[in-house]
Amino acid sequence: MDTAIQNLREAHTKRGEALSAAGTVAAEWRFVLIIIGIVLVFTSLPVLYGYLTAPEGKQYMGIMVNVPDHVQYFSWMREFTTHWLSANKLTPESNEPIFFNLLWFGLARIGVALGLPFEQSYRVMFEAMRVVSTVLFLLLVYRMCAWFFADVPRRRAAFLIATFTSGFGWVLVVMKYTVTGGELINPLDVYVAEGNTFYSALAFPHFLGAALYIWTFDLVLRGQAKRQLRYAVAAGLFAQFMGWQHAYDLVIVYAVLGVYALFLLLRDRRLPWFMITSILIVGILSGWPALYSFLLTKLDPVWGEVLAQFDNAGVFTPPPYRLPVLLGIPFLLAIFAVIADGVASMRAGRWVAASQPAVDEQTINNDLFIKAWFLISFVLVYLPVDFQIHMLNGWQVPIAILATTALFDYVAPFVQRKLAQHGRGASLVSIQRWATIAIVLLILPTNVYLWAWRFVDLRRHDYPYYLHNAELDAFKWLEQNAQPDDVVLSSLTTGQYVPMFTGAHAYVAHWAQTLDFFEKRDAVQRFFDAQTTDDERAQILQAHGVDYVLIGPAERALGDFSPEQLSLLSEAYSNSLVQVYRVGAP
Fold it and tell me: Are residues 285 and 337 in the same domain?
């Protein structure tokens, strides 16, 4: 009887533990979904504001920040609605359709399958991509936090830091309105989206889509723990899938895995054959998009020149001494964690910090991996290439994990000791909870500013986020009457929209995609200047085979040019605000 009762008690205890574990899992998911919901709500409010407050006669274009790059994507998207490959329509030079990007191709084809006209499709699909990429990225971030941390409070802390972290850009904003006379010092330290999850979800969702490359790491680590190479195969296939959308991120994948293997070699003093095999599998399966991108820019002169013009934007990783401004408190805590763990490890004579109670192989490997990811990123973000700033993308994840380690293993115990010295006892768990709340409040201000400023920008209801309905009507006429190889000359303001709405080539549209961008931008300004001679205007039109000239409010703002005086032009379309002129023989 006693045995039977004991068995019943054990069964009841196990059932209670199982129910408790299930409750914990459910509570975790509720927490994650609530945070995702908060992010989606707040990042959607400026979008709704843009659409709902559009004044009569104007339309919001659905873009939150950085119009030139987004209309570039939408130009590709338009081409992909009918073709497998896209030509570069943001430059007047004729070129073959040889460009492919899986993300914009997929969005374009889904829009076609839904039967949406392109002027609606690009908006709907872009918003859908924003929601999906945000949800998937945040779910994956929490999955990785759960892999690195066994206890829920650490998981939640790391997840919150990775989701909301931003830098000390708010200090620069305060200085702008107090001591620098309205000048924002080092604006890139405020506005860089790579490495900022919330800002990317607000304005650059394709960055979060690209940052899904971190699932490659998740799969490789799980495969290493289980000693199963099928995880490496899955990782390689997924890396290839991501590479067709953003080949730059493969540089991060290969570098991080390579440095991790090096750390394993240094620790074990023997070749880590399982990890080397995993890396080879990932590389062989995923290298094709990288090879395609390399050949595209090396063999095709147009795309080679596009790559060469990337520095036109002047967007590079800030120098090392400004990284704390860009990346904020979590970045400093991550550095502290690496140094403190290193000191503790050397004292203990092992490769994992003495502050960590568990020293099983997976824990040690996780410790090595996260530090490999964090440390090699210092090299990646300063690669001597024009796209170096993209290497910041995803760095917020190892930063958040290491910052949490610093917070829980060093900062909270330090605070507890100080409180005890002053006779104020407090549990470590309580201090860790309040430390998490404190750091979340400290990392929010810059993102609050970025979010609030979207309303300020959109409230102006002006270029480049809004266009006149009359301009859209003129685009519709060009779409129906211009040929795919025709070239349309206009201001840069409206020219950047020409390819996505008309399918024709723009004379000037984008700082990289338009070949000889600055020369063409200056030529457009001269063309609309009333002081320019008709002979010079004719040379501008004939140099790149311009077929149409669009003149609307943005063009008239450049000068008082009267198109009637130029015999090469004949009016082909007109509405209340915009005229389109056909270029013919003199």
Answer: yes
CB 475 within 8 A of CB 498: yes
Q: How far is CA 66 from CA 134, 268, 295, in A?
A: 19, 48, 28
Q: State the number of CA atoms in the 13 A half-sphere of 512 facing the CB.
A: 21
Question: Is 7 part of any domain?
Answer: no
Is 554 contained in some domain?
A: yes
Q: Residue 193 has what pLDDT?
A: 93
| Phi and psi at residue 504, to the nearest 5° | -90, 170
In angstroms, the CA 104 to CA 76 distance is: 7
Last residue of a domain, one of 420, 439, 458: 458
Query: Residue 504's domain spans which residues?
Result: 466-583
CATH code of the domain covering residue 560: 3.40.50.12610
**Cα–Cα distances in Å, from 424 out to 407, 421, 433, 519?**
20, 7, 17, 69
pLDDT at residue number 418: 86
Give me the sign of the Cα torsion angle 388, 391, 396, 402: negative
Q: Which of 570, 553, 547 is nearest to 491 (CA)?
A: 553
Is the bond preceding 357 in cis, omega lying within 30 degrees of 0? no
Domain tally, the chain = 2
Residues 237, 444: Cα–Cα separation, whole Å: 36
The reply to whether 94 falls in a domain is no
The pLDDT, as a whole number, for residue 13 is: 40
DSSP state of 99: B
Is residue 50 within 8 A of residue 458, CB to CB? The reply is: yes
Q: Residues of the chain with pLDDT > 70: what percent?
A: 93
Those residues whose C-beta lies under 8 Å from the C-beta of residue 375, and which sit 6 or more positions away, are 259, 338
Specify the DSSP element, H or E, that contains 459: helix 445-459
CA dist 4 to 8, 17, 18, 35, 458, Å? 6, 20, 21, 46, 72
Low-confidence ranges of the chain (pLDDT < 50): 1-2, 4-22, 354-358
Q: Which residue, 188, 173, 132, is CA-closest to 388?
A: 188
Output b/e per residue, 7-32; b: 16+ Cβ within 10 A: eeeeeeeeeeeeeeeeeeeeebeebb
Q: Among 401, 425, 458, give the residue marking a domain's end.
A: 458
Q: How far apart are CA 364 and CA 362, in angstroms?
A: 5
Is 511 found in the same domain as 556?
yes
